[in-house]
Amino acid sequence: MPVREIGEEKSRIKKLEQIKSKGINPYPSEVRRTHTCLQVVENFEKLLNKKIVLAGRITALRLHGKACFVDLNDGEARMQVYLTQDGVGEESYNQFKEWIDIGDFIEVQGKLFLTRKNEKTLRCSQWRILGKALLPLPEKWHGLKSKETRYRQRYLDLLANPKVRNNFIVRSLILKEVRNFLDEQGYLEVETPILQPLAGGAAARPFLTHLNALKMNLYLRIAPELYLKQLVIGGLSKVYEVAKCFRNEGIDFAHNPEFTQVEFYQAYSDYKDLMVLTEQLLQRVVKRIFNSLQVEYKGHKLSFKTPFTRLKYRDVVYQYSKIDVLDDEKKIKTQAKKRGMEIDKTWSKGKVIDEIFKEFVRPKIIQPTFIIDHPVDLSPLAKRHFDNPELTERFQLLIAGMEICNAFSELNDPLDQEKRFKSQEQMRKKGDEEAHPLDKEFVKALKYGLPPTAGEGLGIDRLTQILTNEPSIREIIFFPLMKRKTK
Question: Domains in the chain, start-ordered, CATH in brackets?
Answer without folding.
Answer: 3-137 (2.40.50.140), 158-476 (3.30.930.10)
